[in-house]
Specification:
Blueprint: H1 6-28, H2 34-37, H3 66-78, E1 83-86, E2 93-97, H4 112-122, H5 124-127, H6 131-135, E3 138-144, E4 151-156, E5 158-159, E6 162-163, E7 169-174, E8 180-185
Length: 202
């Protein structure tokens, strides 16, 4: 015989698995560059920009900083079983996903966009972003996955007010209770233009 509460628990788990799978498919359609798609690393120990402690990629252009590695380790510790992958070109997290049945954060109030930005602010060190970078993010899309109540919030970085055309994408799956289910993106560690430019005389 079925024990009391078991059917509802199974139904809840099934809904979460469905939401996670559907959100993953939606976030995969963010238009992330193929260079980042093949890069996978599990950051379980601290590393730095000049070591390969958490970055075993071959041919990586930019490596995570120690503060980023420490921040990712903290996220994984707070959500046991979570995994992260790194972007080859930018040295920032490509994906952050929890273990099955878990989330990256607890329930929160507010709109899905507000919850997403609050999560980004809380983890800006891991993403290599500043408070100003997050404030300047532009909303690309916020849509609800049918039958799940989960929002897929898609944001894009801006550089001196101009939205990124390649790279700079961020996507978060936010459940109806305000918990963050997953993150996908390819953030650039600086939201401003670097260097100076001068035209020579003709």
């Amino acid at each position: 015989p079925l024990r009391e509460g078991v059917p509802s628990m199974r139904s809840s788990r099934t809904k979460q698995v469905l939401a996670a799978a559907t959100a993953a498919a939606a976030l995969a359609a963010l238009g992330l560059t193929p260079d980042a798609a093949a890069v996978t690393s599990t950051p379980t120990a601290a590393g730095s920009a000049d070591t390969a402690a958490v970055d075993s990629r071959v041919g990586a252009i930019t490596k995570p900083t120690r503060s980023q590695a420490d921040a990712i380790s903290a996220i994984i510790k707070a959500s046991p079983g979570a995994r992260a992958t790194w972007d080859a070109r930018f040295g920032t997290p490509r994906t952050i996903t929890p273990a099955l049945g878990r989330t990256l954060s607890g329930p929160a109030s507010g709109s899905a966009v507000d919850v997403a930005k609050a999560w980004l602010s809380a983890h800006q060190a891991a993403l290599g972003l500043s408070a100003a970078d997050i404030s300047a993010l532009q909303l690309r899309r916020d849509h609800v996955l049918p039958g799940t109540g989960t929002h897929v919030v898609q944001l894009v970085q801006t550089f001196d007010g101009v939205a990124a055309a390649r790279g700079g994408s961020l996507g978060l799956a936010v459940q109806k209770d305000g918990s963050v289910l997953s993150y996908t993106g390819e953030t650039v560690r600086s939201g401003g233009l670097l260097g100076s430019f001068r035209l020579s005389s003709s």
